[in-house]
Amino acid sequence: MTFVAATSFSYMSPTRPTAISVETRGVDFQCLTLGNGPLALLLHGFPDSAHSWRPLMERLADAGWRAVAPFMRGYAPTSVPADGCFQTAALAADAVALHDALGGDGDAVIVGHDWGAPATYGAALLAPDRWRRVVGMAVPPGPAIGAALVGNLAQLKRSWYMFFFQHPLSDMVVAANDLAYIDMLWNDWSPGFDGADTVAATKDALRDPKNLAAALGYYRATLGDGKKDPALADLQARMGSETPTQPLLYLHGVNDGCIGREVAEFAAATSPATVEVRLVEGAGHFLQLEQPTVVADHVLGWIS
Q1: Per residue in 118-161, pLDDT tens?
Q2: E strand or H helix that includes residue 256
Q3: Residue 166 phi/psi, 5° resolution?
Q4: Rounded Cα–Cα distance for residues 241 and 234 (Å)
Q5: How far apart are the first and last CA of the chain?
């Protein structure tokens, strides 16, 4: 069953996103939406929320797009899925289901950042007829990340948190001191950027232990023994070996403290001709907030 309905936490200003509820795949997705026109679906990552897309949503709406940014499965106010499944293929299937529930068509585009990036690539593989163009940020397509974790000690050091999240102690550590761990990650990943308002919104999305466990579950499904849906096994395998066939733009902050620029450069050297990699100066991991005008120009130029 799917439905779309307005909810009570909408914003008063017509220039700001309003909120809708979309129930699909057993999850009650709460989404921000702005504008009218072809669908532009925006998927956030960790530690983040749909609010990080607001600058890009305004530009998309002004350009004639209907921008929709869901709080991803498990991130409040979206519900925690009863199936406890947080593998990337589930996120990709969510995106395709949201496309259908929102009335998207073949002119729709999809944009993903961090965890939202592999979800975006997977959605493009799962339903190529639904997405005309694809944009990823901060996590490159293809084998670049896997290769970096095996052969790039500098990246392995940056990615220490992924392995720490496999231990139950991480649930307590990340939650401690008003989620100070999240402040640390934002400071490390986007050096010098003051994202206090967005970090506060992120903490609201993860403050409940159930929501935090869901967010850490993304990592446990990828590197640990987190639940995997056998029905998604084929898509999960394809996501590890294939690149979407649609034109794909990948954006990466030069100062990204989470994933080094050399990983993006490896992706540029090894990706098929359908993929274009661009580095964004003056930006770290949360580039859509650090350089909102530049990022929006890249995105709009690609999808127009």
Answers
A1: 999 999 999 999 999 999 999 999 888 888 888 899 999 999 99
A2: none
A3: -75, -20
A4: 11
A5: 32
Return the structure tokens found at 195. Answer: 């994202």
Tell me if 152 sits within 8 A of 260, measured CB to CB: yes
CATH of residue 130: 3.40.50.1820
Residue-wise pLDDT tens digits, 165-208:
999 999 999 999 999 999 999 999 999 999 999 999 999 999 99
User: Cβ contacts of residue 288 below 8 Å, gap of 6+?
Assistant: 52, 53, 55, 56, 113, 137, 295
Can you give the C-alpha Rg of the chain in angstroms? 18
Report the predicted TM-score, pTM, of the whole model to 2 decimal places.
0.94
Count of domains for the chain: 1
At position 175, the amino acid (one-letter code) is: A
Buried b (16+ CB within 10 A) or exposed e, 46-78: bbbbbbbbbebbbbbbebebbbbbbbbbbbbbb
- What whole-number distance in Å separates Cα of residue 123 and Cα of residue 147? 22
Domain range spanning residue 133? 3-303
